[in-house]
Write a structure and sequence with these properties.
The structure holds 2 protein chains of 2 kinds. Chain A is of the alpha/beta class. Helix content of chain A is 35%, strand content 28%. Chain A has a 6-stranded mixed sheet, sandwiched between helices. In chain A, strands 2-1-4-5 form a 4-stranded antiparallel sheet, with helices on one face. In chain A, strand 9 and strand 10 form a beta hairpin. The radius of gyration of chain A is 20 Å and the shape is globular. By secondary structure, chain B is mainly alpha-helical. Chain B has a single domain (84-360), classed as ABC transporter involved in vitamin B12 uptake, BtuC, CATH 1.10.3470.10. Chain B is built from 14 helices and no strands. Chain B has helices at 2-42, 50-61, 70-109, 121-135, 144-169, 173-197, 200-211, 219-238, 240-246, 250-255, 260-282, 288-300, 304-328, 337-355. In chain B, helix 4 (121-135) packs antiparallel against helix 7 (200-211), helix 12 crosses helix 13 (304-328) and helix 13 (304-328) packs across helix 14. The radius of gyration of chain B is 22 Å and the shape is globular. The structure holds adenosine-5'-triphosphate and magnesium ion.
């Protein structure tokens, strides 16, 4: 499955949020979307899944125009994990994951659906919550359940909006490993919006750095995560080192911190 | 490998049991409803046993198996089929329809306060009826049908206004509820204005219409409601899994392949239509549509594939039960059932809310 995005533009109101975004993603690849808050990462992901309708440009899924596909067709190919979510009425975790089977089966749920749901719940180690109410789970537990729902869809492309933002370090690694293994073994692709530059460097094959709705840099992690780029986009001075597990980024200080200090008066308590 | 597949098997078993419980609940409700209908038919001025009731019913449903002697059967046949069943069936079908409409409204608006009357539907119906009673104008023929037709048409008018505005402004739950509230105030004010200029007798007629009662039952209106219910229920049950997905939020539902706006608008029209067909014959019967889905959700959870039928059956049980109490408690006076449902529904609902410990919504 190949995802090709060309010249995507999008506005919520008058101001454009995405400006001429172009990128490409192949089979067995993970694309990391990085960029500061409000850069347009979530917006881009929603455009890819046709939750939002871009003004211009095209998104091709294996040569097929997303715009011309029905939601149901798209849902058979693309799984989406939102940044946050909670239901209004109580639903069990099992039923929540079972929703992922909806695009494939419709009304009933066959043994195969139940089997698939049990399988992904086991994979993500969430089977002990199976009959709990989804709304009563912790933030991290919810994130795993939403990932399970997307995996139950058996998608060819996974769109993940900060899938690790609420997880502790162990679960961050576990979830990223699961995503990577699924991408490799099932031959699918994933777009992951992520704030943690270290996780991004380690698990993404390619990175796209968004800034104010445009692509500031794109390519292999080594070429994107440089001292200069990080300073320009995030306004942070950071050390970028090569370690045994790939790059790691150590943020040192905000680039403008000294300037802030000068303009401020601190009064001592004593 | 061993322990892994064990946990998966356990999980599947758990879930199957969980589904089994829901089905059991529905079966129990069906049995209870049949018993309650039989019991309700025994009450009245002429006394008749439950056995006679069921025999009288079966004699017509299965004419090839004449079970009792012709002469006494004749009498119970008249009592059951002519006098009591229309009212009982109106209670059953109206309860079913209102509870179904409530369940659907709550699901599509993702709001626990939604009921068939949230979207200004009750006010619209009341306005239509008032127009007919006080000014004698409206659609349909003079007399009783005028009130019925007017109530129906204004209810549908309200939902079409919501449909059009929401379609234009984006069919989000918040938008639809706000449009409904605005409509509700507009229609209530218009009704009050008409009442202000009406003479006392007419105003009393309006007030009585608004109480909601089953006194106007006949086989013809039961047939109309049943047919509408059958068609609308089929559509809604067919869409029930989409309602489940919708609970996770609009964006998630879209990503799972649900055409959210269309589902919301069409289901709202269908639920309003069911409500309109019922309240034009019965007047305003509150609370069933609000409370029945909640009670069922507390008992069997939020899966709409089971919630819809369960809530529908509970609606029938509650409305029929309330009407049975209403017509016997200080007989021969019959209290309008709309008053009964709200009177007993409120405290019962309080009790359930207090008893439920787990976070509910
Ligand atoms: N529904 C909306 N209406 C108007 N503007 C919006 C809406 N949603 C997002 N925006 C704006 O669009 C811009 C991009 O938002 P987006 O959510 O895509 O950012 P992001 O990169 O995902 O940020 P974060 O890292 O905080 O999740 C922001 O400036 C935001 O304020
Ligand atoms: Mg975001």
């Amino acid at each position: 499955m190949k995802l090709k995005i060309t010249g995507i533009t999008f506005k919520y109101a008058s101001e454009p949020i995405l400006k001429n975004v172009t990128m490409e993603l192949g089979k067995r690849e993970i694309l990391g979307l990085i960029g500061p808050n409000g850069a347009g990462k979530s917006t881009l992901i929603k455009c890819i899944d046709k939750i939002l309708k871009p003004l211009g440009g095209s998104i091709l899924l294996d040569g097929q125009e997303i715009r011309k596909m029905t939601r149901r067709e798209i849902a058979k190919h693309i799984g989406y994990v939102p940044q946050t979510s909670s239901g209004c009425f109580p639903a069990t975790v099992f039923d929540t994951v079972l929703m992922g089977r909806y695009p494939r089966t419709g009304w009933g749920s066959s043994d195969r659906d139940i089997e698939k749901v049990a399988e992904v719940m086991e994979l993500l180690k969430i089977e002990r919550f199976a009959l709990r109410n989804f709304n009563t789970l912790s933030g991290g537990e919810k994130q795993k359940v939403m990932l399970a729902r997307a995996l139950a869809q058996e998608p060819k492309v996974l769109l993940l909006d900060e899938p690790t933002s609420n997880l502790d370090i162990k679960h961050q690694l576990e979830v990223m490993e699961v995503i990577r293994d699924i991408v490799r073994y099932k031959g699918i692709s994933a777009v992951v919006a992520i704030h943690d530059l270290n996780l991004a460097a380690r698990y993404a094959d390619k990175l796209v750095m968004l800034h104010k709705g445009g692509i500031f840099a794109g390519g292999y992690p080594e070429s994107v995560l440089t001292y200069e780029n990080i300073k320009k986009i995030y306004g942070v001075e950071a050390e970028v080192k090569k370690g045994p597990y790939g790059l790691y980024v150590l943020p040192l200080k905000p680039a403008s911190y000294s300037a802030v200090m000068e303009n401020r008066v601190f009064t001592s308590v004593e | 490998m061993g322990s892994e597949s064990v946990s998966k098997t356990v999980l599947k078993e758990q879930y199957t049991k969980f589904i089994g419980k829901k089905i059991l609940f529905i079966v129990v409700l069906v049995i209870f409803l049949i018993l309650l209908m039989g019991f309700a038919a025994t009450l009245g001025s002429a006394s008749i046993t439950m056995k006679e009731v069921y025999i009288a019913i079966l004699r017509r449903l299965l004419p090839n198996f004449a079970i009792s002697k012709p002469l006494e059967a004749e009498l119970s046949d008249i009592i059951v089929w002519r006098l009591r069943l229309p009212r009982i069936m109106l209670g059953v079908t109206a309860g079913m329809g209102l509870a179904t409409a409530g369940t659907v409204m709550q699901a599509i608006l993702r709001n626990p306060l939604a009921s068939p009357f949230t979207l200004g539907i009750a006010s619209a119906a009341s306005f239509g009826a008032t127009l007919a009673i006080i000014l004698g104008i409206g659609f349909g023929f003079a007399g009783g049908t005028l009130v019925v037709a007017n109530a129906f048409i204004f209810t549908m008018l309200a939902s079409i206004i919501i449909f059009t505005l929401a379609n234009y402004k984006g069919a989000t739950p918040g938008m639809m509820i706000l449009i409904g509230i605005a409509l509700s105030f507009t229609f209530s004010a218009s009704t009050s204005l008409l009442q202000f200029f009406g003479d006392p007798e007419e105003v009393a007629g309006v007030v009585f219409w608004m109480f909601g009662c089953l006194g106007r039952a006949s086989w013809s209106n039961v047939t109309v409601i049943s047919l509408v219910l059958l068609i609308c229920m089929s559509y809604l049950i067919w869409k029930s899994k989409e309602f489940n997905v919708l609970n996770a939020g609009d964006e998630t539902a879209k990503s799972l392949g649900v055409n959210v706006e269309q589902l919301r608008l069409v289901s709202m029209l269908v639920a309003s239509f069911v409500t309109a067909v019922i309240i034009c014959f019965t007047g305003i019967i509150g609370f069933i549509g609000l409370v029945c889905p909640h009670i069922c959700r507390m008992l069997i959870g939020g899966d709409n594939r089971f919630l819809l039928p369960a809530s529908c059956l509970l609606g029938a049980v509650v409305l029929l039960g309330a009407d049975t109490v209403a017509r016997t408690i200080i007989s021969p006076v019959i209290i309008p059932v709309g008053i009964m449902t709200s009177f007993f529904g409120g405290p019962l609902f309080f009790y359930l809310l207090m008893r439920k410990r787990e976070e509910y919504w």
